[in-house]
Every structure is written in C-alpha cells, then in structure tokens.
Predict the 3D structure of the following.
Amino acid sequence: MPTSNVQMITCTMCQETYKRPKYLPCLHTFCESCLERYIVKIADICTKLDNKLPASIFDNKPYIWTGEGFPCPVCRGHVHMRNDQLKGTSPQQWAAMFPMNQLVLSIMGYEAIPTENACTPCQKIEDPKPADHWCLECSEALCPSCSAHHRVLKATDTHAVVKLSELKNQKGPVSHVEVCTCHVHGGKVVDLYCVDHNQLACEECAKNSHKDCEHLIPIEKVAGEIRNSAEAHKLLDKLRECNEESECIILDRNRTMDKLNSRKSVFIQRIKKVRDEINKVLDELETIFHDDFDATHANVVGDLEDQIGRCQLLQKAVDSSMGILNAAIEHGTDNELFVVAHSMEKELHKYEEVIEKETKRIFEMDYEFNVNYEIEHILLSLDEIGSLKITKLPTTVSPFVKKHAKIVERFDATSPMDERCAELTGGTFLPDDRLMLVDTANEKLKLFTPEGDLLCEFELSSAPWDITCVPGGMAAVTLPVEKKIMMVSGLNDCITPIEQFSTTGACYGIAYSYHAKELVVTCDTPGDGMTVVKVISLSGEEVRTISVGEDGKSLISRPSYVATNPFNADVYVSDDCNNTVIGITMNGEFRFRHNEMYLRLPVGIAADNHGCVYVCGNGSGDIYQMSRDGQRIRLLCDGLPHPRAIAFDPYAERFLVTSDGSYKSTVQLYTLF
C-alpha cells in the first residue's frame, strides 16, 4: 500500500513536517534542528555515561563515543564524520553539514502549493508582485526578479526552485534537481555505479577507490529499468517481512513477561504458604529469598525489555527505511530510486542480521521453585527457604509451525459433590500448571491439576459457557443467561470472584487478546437476535462490534467460540451453522472465510503460541490445524469423541480438549512435539 505523503514528510523525532530535511548515510532523514539537538544531547549523555551508550541494534554492544561521529537516532548505526568536517567544528555544527533530502523537499513542495500567486519577499516590503516560481526549501513564492536573485545568492544558490505551473498542473510531487551527495567526499554528486564492487561512487571515488575497476558506469544506464523491474518492490516486501518478524519478537517477549509476572505472583503465594507452616525463625530467610527473587526477576525482565527495546528501535529503522523506499518508488526519479534501493539493500542485510541475532537469543523462559522439604526437621541448620531456577528452552516465533499432538493425560471432571454428570463447554490454563474448567450442567467452575486432581470448585448463579485466561492469574467467564462476564482469580488453589459486568446480549465464546489486551466475545444482539462478535475492555466497556458486514448483517450465523492471535489483531470465529471458520481483525476488517466439506460442525477454536489456529470438528470428530491466514490446513487429531472446546496453554506447548455426548465430562490433555 503506498505510503501517504504526510508520512513521507514527517520527521520521526519531532513528529512534525520536516524543516530543512537532512539525511544521513543510512538514508534516515530528520529536521536539521532536531538532528542538531540530538547530536548535542548524545554527546552530553555519553560524557555522563563514561562514553558508553545503550547497546546498538546491530551488534548488541554498548556504543562508545569517540568524538568522530554519532549513532543514527533510528537505527543507531555509526555516522562517521569526515576529517574535513571535524576540523575546527563542534557537534553543534555537524547537522548542518549533511546533505538536504531533495526528494522529501519535492514532496513538501507539492504539499505546500500556495493558493495565491503573490511573491513572498515582495510582500514583506509592501511591494506585491505576481509570483511564478516556488522555492522547495524556503517554502516561498517568488517573482521572476526574486527568483533570479534566489539562484545566485550564496545562502540560497543550492535551493531547489521550480515553476508554480509545474506545482499546480501535476498530481504528484514536483520534478526536482537530483542531489545525491557522496558522504565520503562532501559536495560531490553520486552519479556512478561500480559493478566490480557493487558500490555507488562519485567522481572522486572513481579516481581513488575505483581507478582500477573495469566496469564503472553512469547511474543513468543501470537505473533506467529499475522502476519497471520487481527488485525495488521485492526489497520493500523483505523490509515488511523484517518488520513483521520484529513485531512477533516484541509480542512474544511481552507475553513472556506477562507469564513471568504471573508465575512470580504464584510462587510468592507458595512461599508464603510454606512460611506459614514454620515458625518466626524463618522470617529473615523469607526476606532474603524475596530480595533475591526480586533481583533475579528484575534482571530477567530487564533483559527482555532490552531485547524489546532493540526490536522497537529496529522497527523504527525499518519503518523509516520503508518510508524512504516508498517515497523513492512513488515519487523519485529512476536515479534516486536506484541509489535508494542500492543503499537500502545494504541496510536490509544489517536488519536481517539483527533479526537473526535476536531470534537466536529467544528462549522459552520460566521459573522453577523447589521447596526445601527438610524445613520441619532441620530448622536450625537452614540457610534458605527454597531455590529458584530460571529455565531457558529454545523456542520460535515463526508464523506457522507444523506440529504433532500426543495425549499425555485423560480424566473425568465429575466430582462427588455434583448432582449431574459434568458437561464441559470451556476450559483454560492458568500460569501455574493448573486447569480451570467450565461445568455447564452443574453451574460450576472447577480447578484441577494437570493430573486430574480436583483442587477447588466454585458454584455460580447460572450456567457458564466459556472461559479464557487473563494475565495475573485471573480468568474471564461468560454467563449467557445473566448476560454477564465474571472475572475470577485462581491463585492459592481456590477460585475467588473479583468483579462482574453486564453485556448488551447473551455472551458465549470468549478469548483474551494479548495483542490488544482486551476481551473478544460472541454475543446475541437484543431484539433482532443477530449474533455478533464484540471487543470488550477488561473494565467491561464494549469498545466495538467487529463481525457486522457492510450490509449491516452479521458475517456469522451461529458463533459459539472465538480465538485471538497472540501476535496481531486477528480474531478467529467458528460458525457451526455454516461449517465455516471466519477470520477478521479487531477493527472489523474481513480476513478470510474457510469452508471445507470434511470440517463438520466446527465449534471450539484456539490459537497456539506461534499464531497457528486449531478448530474442533464436532461432527467430524477431529481437530484441524490452520495457518493464521486460513489458507493452509491439516489434520492434527482424528477419531475423537465429539470434541467440544479446545484451549492452549499460553506459556507451554500443550492444549486441552473437552467432548460432547457420553464423553462430556472427559478432559484430554495433549502436548505438541
């Protein structure tokens, strides 16, 4: 999708229209004043930090200030100042030495087309004259006389001056004089391409670095066909992929922090329970453990936040690069597009190296706490209340991972206190290896261990339907008869109601979006009975309805379950009435409609930690795995007794499945491998 002109002319530092746009060797562009303030600030910060800045996204090493350059504000790549630029100058003067971005100026010229043709300088001396030219850099209209003076004055002789008729007669940015300046030889125009070294060059480069090269040709000869070729667009697609992978890493790291925060709360509760069973002699040990735990947790989270910060910086760099390349594709000359594409290809290699490095640093992290069982016997000899271990397992954030499922546990959820056989229409995993199940028949919530041991059950005022895990050891439960959603806590081996809020219709399927941090719920609309999907905040505010088409009708006939993608705003809804799975976004944009004859009565639906989608075929007795775009699908499990609900552990490679019919009280636990 083409980048808007507003985005192309907006400085990433001040978020306003460029004022004297200057570009660095990496092609990232900033207002001259913004760049000047940044360089001065960086120099001051480096002095306070003993000449070391936070890690660069390219090498993950602290940036060391040498006084011979500075890190780019976007990509943090080192910008080296030439000796002739450093001599007799201070960092405050460096910003003015970088070349003007003529492409951005041309776009700005189009955006600032004057409505009146009066010469700006002449108006200032109260001698108005009609203007026929426009200075892209000064954003001023000029009469013939002022235009002539503008071109010869030393302060403005390099400005791009164009005819007003060109501005008004064309539908895009004005044509302009190309000024692609060599960063090695200041002031020299880059107009050559060395095939032998795959490098751009100016006249001085050709005389020095490329004097023995046999294939040194003018840019015009190699740039002529680039607009009609697919190379620039392929480069743009790769930049988009780089951006998407960065987003996946950020979301995965945020998800890991949510998990560790929840696990930390759970372990603190366990520590407290152990501590209550012993005497006050262990108060000091508990304090020591808490301090150590907090410090360890802070270090782990700090590392995750550092990684997120690097990826966010990478995203800014990629976004800026995409904007520059889009600008060159849409509005630049062939020469400019070739220069930009050539430079951007090298930047892309750096970005890809960063992604590769960051991906290798991703581990599935968890805490493991082991209670010291000899506390009761050797109180006097104890030196710790327990041990904390951080586990790191290789993981992936790929958008589609082909897995196989293996059943590891099966148990009956009917308890001795139940009046009826349990009917499980929903379930979820809590962050401490426990399962919370919805029992519609007995109007209860039940808390189990993965081995099937009942820990607690909580009676509700009406039959629940579905449940989803919410960060912090909580869960959200739908009560369709009461048209309510109840928030409960599952900490400390008990189920505790926290709050509840009403919905405008009977609510059924529910899922928590880790991307938007909101709930997605299927509801009946009062009056017309139309079933829709709604986005609801954790405070109970109905943010929007997202499953209504342009004709005002719902895209779904009878949705009973809903799932969300952990990496983006995608929502997946199963429609058992039409044997269909619908993909939409949280903004209501239609993504896909999947309908296959072998998938009968799709009900329970869930997404795993990689964004893959799983749907229960209640009529076909199976579970299918789909990609996030709904195009690829394969059989994961078959021969199941009427699978009803499915839920994935947001922190591990496993899922649970419940069934209908004579197996409606059975829970099956699977692991992915």
